[in-house]
Amino acid sequence: MSPIHYLCKNPSITFEMIYALVQSGVINWNLGGHTPLHDLCINTSVTKEIIKILINNGADFHIQWYSPLHFLCLSHVITTEIIDILIQNQANFNLQIATVLHCLCQNPLISEEMIKLLKGSNADFSIKSSYGTTPKDFLPNHLQKLI
Asked: Start-end of the ANK repeats (predicted)?
């Protein structure tokens, strides 16, 4: 495992630490299908600034079938600001068999603001997973009405 993988898993991660390692050029180093961004997206200490530095330095959040974006959308740190950063960087919420949008709609932290932001970016709430479910199927009733 590379130093950047360890750092991205560390709950004490800081912007300065990640910035120093990003300069080493191992941002998409793949270890068994997981990149540092995968590890970062399940770290409960991740911030929008840390996500921005990785994305701005070439981190690929569409790598592998279950991408870092999937992990992030299932995490407890997802916010409207983070979703907006991802949209601004061309995140594809409709990619994969079980889409990132499916994951986000299962997250108990999903909000009305997030739904509105995603709708504005043309996220497809009707796309079916390999199980025949749509992202909308996972939303609470009060949020389904926004679709």
From this structure: 32-66
